[in-house]
């Protein structure tokens, strides 16, 4: 904590941070975060609360209506109001279509070439990311999330249907994936801001240092 807080914050978390993050209200009220990865936990909780409603719509009205009812309003909002900025609250609605895509996929039994369909849906999005660069991508996550969701959903279907047996080793990574998500940012932040300056030059050298050192440490810590 002594290393992490000064490395990652312009100011230390306050009592408001304890209340907001302790009650999982960080998507409703803004507060200085003790861990930047925690923003999504509140989003998950809100989506889980709405989960029964999504299931009712799916079972009574069908998958397509569920997808349309959740996705169309989000797209319209993004067009009219613009995309959320980094650090904004109220991201639950933005990510609801991603959540609903998983609900839709859970009921699909068709044996299709999901791996090829996933590639066809994902590669154009990856090409746009490559073409536009990381800065543009970072300021357009709203649209990138929505655009890449169909491809990633089909990738999950490919794994679930045994279409990608060569990456079965990912099962092990999947078991620690949530721990990895929660813990990687504090580790990488300390390495980048407190350790790397003593061993690597700024720029690509720092990035290489953080990846080479930070990924193994993060994996072991998550395990």
Question: What is this entry, summarized?
Answer:
Helix 3 packs across helix 4 (63-81), helix 3 crosses helix 5 and helix 9 packs antiparallel against helix 10. The chain has 223 residues and is mainly alpha-helical.
Count of extended strands:
0
Mean pLDDT equals 86
- Largest sheet properties: none
Question: How much helix, percentage-wise, in residues?
Answer: over 70%
Roughly what fraction of the amino acids lie in strands? under 5%
Alpha plus pi helix count: 10
Indicate the structural class.
mainly alpha
Distance between the termini: 20 Å
Low-confidence runs of at least 5 consecutive residues: none
| Element-by-element helix/strand order | HHHHHHHHHH
Q: Which outline best applies? A: globular
Oligomer: single chain
What is the CA-based Rg, rounded? 20 Å
Secondary structure layout:
Layout: H1 4-8, H2 15-22, H3 39-61, H4 63-81, H5 92-106, H6 114-138, H7 141-160, H8 170-175, H9 177-195, H10 204-222
Helix pairs in contact: 3-4, 3-5, 4-5, 5-7, 6-7, 9-10
Question: How would you characterize this protein structure?
Answer:
The protein is mostly helical and 223 residues long. 71% of the residues lie in helices and 0% in strands. It contains ten helices and no strands. α5 packs parallel to α7 and α6 runs antiparallel to α7. The chain starts with a helix and ends with a helix.
């Amino acid at each position: 904590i002594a290393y992490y807080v000064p490395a990652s914050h312009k100011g230390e978390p306050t009592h408001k941070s304890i209340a907001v993050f302790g009650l999982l209200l960080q998507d409703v009220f803004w507060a200085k975060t003790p861990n930047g990865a925690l923003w999504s936990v509140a989003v998950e909780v809100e989506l889980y609360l709405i989960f029964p409603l999504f299931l009712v719509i799916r079972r009574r009205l069908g998958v397509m209506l569920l997808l349309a009812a959740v996705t169309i309003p989000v797209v319209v909002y993004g067009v009219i109001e613009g995309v959320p900025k980094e650090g904004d609250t109220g991201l639950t609605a933005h990510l609801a279509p991603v959540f609903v895509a998983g609900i839709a996929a859970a009921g699909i039994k068709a044996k299709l070439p999901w791996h090829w369909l996933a590639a066809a849906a994902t590669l154009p999005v990856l090409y746009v990311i490559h073409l536009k660069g990381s800065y543009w991508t970072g300021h357009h996550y709203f649209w990138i999330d929505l655009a890449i969701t169909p491809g990633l959903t089909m990738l999950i279907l490919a794994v679930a249907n045994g279409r990608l047996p060569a990456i079965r080793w990912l099962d092990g990574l999947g078991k620690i994936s949530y721990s990895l998500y929660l813990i990687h940012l504090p580790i990488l932040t300390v390495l980048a801001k407190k350790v790397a300056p003593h061993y690597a030059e700024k720029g690509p050298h720092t990035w290489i240092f953080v990846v080479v050192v930070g990924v193994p440490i993060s994996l072991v810590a998550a395990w």
